[in-house]
Design a protein that fits this description.
Arc Repressor Mutant, subunit A; 2 strands; mainly alpha; 184 residues; two-stranded antiparallel ribbon; elongated
Length: 184
């Protein structure tokens, strides 16, 4: 089974960085859950180590949520990886079987060395990138796709944005009554 803690934590951190750039730095677990296609409870569990490592700050209260713990250009992807994955190795070896030959006698040790070597390379690559770098890369990908400029999703809380005229009973403009849809 694939471990998605890092990719989920990174996507959440990128959403928080983007939200901060757009002027709405605090996002709720419900908002993040919609963008991560998961549930708010899982998002809150995902945030625990990130808060403990001060990569994310938790804001309590009715209008609370989470925000970046420091500027995006001062958070490396290596920090996000170490925080979200903890001490869990990149790969898990198969359980040991009978020791009958060269492979079965030494595969666990070989696999441990290979895993350590790979993790050092991965952490080296991630340590050289910040959240701000990653947001710049996402913008470059977006420009290369030729996509039209999106609505500024963080300009106001979703529940406070007006719907365009003609979207509601009688064709009148309505206001959203609560958070809807993903944050971006």
């Amino acid at each position: 089974m694939l471990d998605v803690r890092f990719s989920s934590a990174l996507k959440a951190m990128l959403l928080l960085g983007h939200a901060e750039e757009e002027g709405s730095p605090v996002l709720s677990s419900t908002q993040l859950a919609r963008s991560l296609n998961t549930n708010p409870s899982l998002v809150r569990k995902l945030m625990v180590p990130l808060v403990q490592d001060a990569l994310v700050a938790s804001i309590r209260g009715r209008s609370g949520g989470v925000r970046l713990g420091r500027p995006a250009d001062r958070i490396t992807l290596g920090e996000v990886y170490r925080s979200s994955v903890g001490d869990k190795p990149l790969w898990a070896p198969r359980p040991e079987g009978p020791r009958e030959c060269l492979v079965t006698n030494h595969s666990a040790e070989y696999f441990a060395r290979l895993t350590d070597e790979t993790e050092v390379a991965v952490l080296g690559a991630l340590a050289g990138r910040t959240l701000a770098d990653s947001l710049d890369e996402l913008r470059a990908i977006d420009r290369a796709d030729g996509a039209p400029a999106p609505e500024r999703p963080f300009s106001a809380p979703r529940h406070q944005r007006a719907r365009p005229a003609g979207h509601g009973p009688g064709g009148s403009a309505l206001r959203y009554s609560g958070p809807t849809g993903p944050v971006c």
